[in-house]
What we know:
- The chain is α+β, with helices and mostly antiparallel strands.
- The chain is 48% helix and 30% strand.
- Strands 6-5-4-7-1-2-3-8 form an 8-stranded mixed beta sheet.
Amino acid sequence: MDVLMELSRILITELGDQQVIFLKEKDGQRSFPILIGIHEALAIDRRLKNKPTPRPMTHDLMAQVIESLGATIEKIVINDIQEHTFLATLFLRRDGQVIEVDSRPSDAIALGVAFDTPIYVAEHVLDSVVQAEPKTREARIGLLRQRLEMLSDRIRQANEQLGDEDFLAQAPEEMIKELRRQCEEMQSEHDAIEKVLRKLG
């Protein structure tokens, strides 16, 4: 079952690598943040506010291509989360046929936001990542700090493994590369949350 959501906030803290958008349940209280790149965050904000640009930007071009092919964006579904990464599908309709396109949530939302495209999240994804939206600023900060502590612990564990000579000697090279990649992703999220917390005071 997919749950209808809405874009409730875009938090652009500074021109850094990671920014935050918040999705909220349309007919409920559940919400959660998604970390996205600065370019996608600015594109979402610009297209949401219908700000013109001298020339088409990437997401404008993609929208024009879809339209020129006679297709419409029907819906966006965030249907899975793997290793801290959300996965999404963009549903297009053309001549009565539904076309499913694998997408990052940020790109799909940047495309669809100008057309008021409905955003859905799979129930199992929602259950795994959300809590009822906190009612106060302090509660929101508390949730971010909890996430920061959890990431710090996981990063510490990963670094301990990567510093273990026995592990490095015995583990397959692909496993080591994957662990390093996961560690970098978690560190990126950790740094982004720290920036948000500094901004919120």
